[in-house]
TrEMBL record:
Keywords: Decarboxylase, Glycosyltransferase, Lyase, Multifunctional enzyme, Pyrimidine biosynthesis, Transferase. It comes from the Eukaryota. Pathway: Pyrimidine metabolism; UMP biosynthesis via de novo pathway; UMP from orotate: step 2/2; Pyrimidine metabolism; UMP biosynthesis via de novo pathway; UMP from orotate: step 1/2. Residues 33-248 form the Orotidine 5'-phosphate decarboxylase domain. Its EC number is 2.4.2.10, 4.1.1.23. One of its GO terms (biological process) is 'de novo' pyrimidine nucleobase biosynthetic process. This is Uridine 5'-monophosphate synthase. Coiled coil: none annotated. GO terms for molecular function: orotate phosphoribosyltransferase activity; orotidine-5'-phosphate decarboxylase activity. The active site is at D92 (for ompdecase activity), K94 (for ompdecase activity), D97 (for ompdecase activity). Substrate binds at D39, K61, S154, Q212, G232, R233. The lineage of its organism: Eukaryota, Metazoa, Ecdysozoa, Nematoda, Chromadorea.
Amino acid sequence: TNDLWNLETRKPLLECNPLNAMVLKYMTLKKTNLCVAVDETNKEKILQTIQSIGGYVCAIKLHADIIDDFDQSFIDELTTLSKHHQFVIFADRKLADTGNTVELQLTHGSLHIADWANVVTVHSVPGPPILQSVLNIIKQNKALKGSLLIASLSSKGALTDAEYSKKSLEMANDAKNVVSGFICQKRPSDNPEFLYWTPGVNELKSTDGLGQQWRSIEDAIKRDGNDIIIVGRAITQSQNPVEVARDYASRAFELWKSR
Ligand code: 5FU
């Protein structure tokens, strides 16, 4: 019902989850439910982009494995920017392996994600053990505070059908201390304890010719019931990323509040 989705009612429910508490604080303080996907391949460019749009986002999403010169200095500067602008650092790693491997992927290698990312994406395809392993790492008091389970993907022909989304939801319901919310197209549940993050948003184009499927901010939030829009190229490759980010953030936030 609408009541459950009223922010006053929902706030204490969301705050039970440390990651959601952090996201919600930034969302309300900065009046933004925009997460920008900064898919650039060198650290200077990424940091410059974040510097310019950081005031308009509640989260910055990165694919660390596409950064040519990823190193500790990048992590340090990213962390400083996140504290200055107040946003969550989101690693879109899409973990999808057996438990032991996932623990190693979060803590070792050149990316050691759990040391700098506050939230990471996880595929539900390996089943419940993957969430136990993510929890083991969250308990180590590193930067990592939560995860987002992928209920559905935005790409054309994705195998994540309604049944898959439903099973992902069941996995999340059994692991609320690990799963803070979902990556989804349509919100897979009416449970107000989770945050629903959606990629595939672009006001000007509907596809990139490589299988991505974009829809409008209004469809993403009102029709599909999501909380946070994840926007990449519509902002990062626009003529004026700062203005477009400000515009997407204010439109998305109005729609979210009036839903
Ligand atoms: F899980 C998903 C998904 O289903 N679709 C996505 O597009 C993640 N993404 C990411 O969101 C994708 O990897 C990009 O980093 C981002 C969308 O960027 P775009 O430029 O708006 O397409």
